[in-house]
Amino acid sequence: MAGGAAVEIEGLRVRRGRTEVFGGIDLTIPRGRITGLLGPSGCGKTTLLRAIVGVQRVDGGTVTVLGQPAGARPLRHRVAYGTQGGAVYGDLTVRQNLGYLGAVLGAPKGDVDRVLDEVGLRDQAGQRVDSLSGGQATRVSLGMALVGSPDLIVLDEPTVGLDPVLRVELWDLFRGLSERGATLIVSSHVMDEALRCDRLLLMRSGRIIADTTPTALLQDTGAEDPDAAFLALIRRDSRDAEARRPTTRRARREAGA
User: Fold this and answer.
1) pTM
2) Can you spell out the DSSP letters for the chain?
3) Domain boundaries, the chain
4) Among 12, 20, 107, 183, fewest CB within 10 Å belongs to which?
5) In the chain, what percentage of residues exceed pLDDT 90?
6) What confidence score (pLDDT) does residue 133 get?
7) What is the CATH number of domain 2-78+151-256?
8) What's the confidence (pLDDT) of residue 65?
9) Angle formed by the axes of helices 111-118 and 134-146, to 10°?
10) CA pair distance 175, 178, nearest whole angstrom
């Protein structure tokens, strides 16, 4: 793909019933980086991630992932998707969950042990998932996404509801995966996590209102923290929308004249 892109999106349109979720998103996500997809709940983050992994019905446009159409068969072993709910079996042990997925994917022998070490669950390998703490269960879900060493890892709010210590530990893991060559797309509505990303996509109401970096975000808005920066972008976006509105009304009047 051009420029070493992991994902290229052109003119993506998605509707849910009569509601337009995306009216034509264009986007390029580079390889080997951590791209943060940030924005308030309900802004379209999960829908965009689902489109990237190929499980979202789209109404127009193209989504190309690692050189293939999103959801194509060759991507099944190269793209991992960690959902908010966590696709694990509570009545199986941690090792059994990872081993089952490894067998489905045809992962190398010993891959389960590698993942157990990466997510820090070696001591809990024999425990049933439904007996684990919330933080440990989240680690299992993340581990499922790491089986088979995928090239692209898509994580939908993996740190939601976790304590600050565990959040830091997981972001350290994300950084390690990126440094080993994996591409990560991580969604969140916790703005301070923006500073841990290489690239930022800030969403509002189904639109990308900023495609930037942590440093550029703070410099562009003059804010001291990501929360204030995002609020500044929302205010700017609202002003721009208001400025466009009279022109639209005038154009309609002229069209009807």
Assistant:
1) 0.87
2) -GGGEEEEEEEEEEEETTEEEEEEEEEEEETTSEEEEE--TTSSHHHHHHHHHT-S--SEEEEEETTEETT-GGGTTTEEEE-SS----TTSBHHHHHHHHHHHHTPPTTHHHHHHHHTT-GGGTTSBGGGS-HHHHHHHHHHHHHTT--SEEEEESTTTT--HHHHHHHHHHHHHHHHTT-EEEEEES-GGGGGG-SEEEEEETTEEEEEE-HHHHHHHHT-SSHHHHHHHHHHHHHHHHHHHHHHHHHHHHHHH-
3) 2-78+151-256, 87-149
4) 20
5) 60
6) 86
7) 3.40.50.300
8) 97
9) 140
10) 5
Evaluate if residue 216 carries a pLDDT over 80.
yes
pLDDT over 50 (residue 2): no
CB under 8 Å to 4, separation ≥6 — which residues? 30, 31, 32
- In angstroms, the Cα distances linking 191 to 14, 139, 196 are 26, 21, 10
- The mean pLDDT value for 89-95 works out to 94
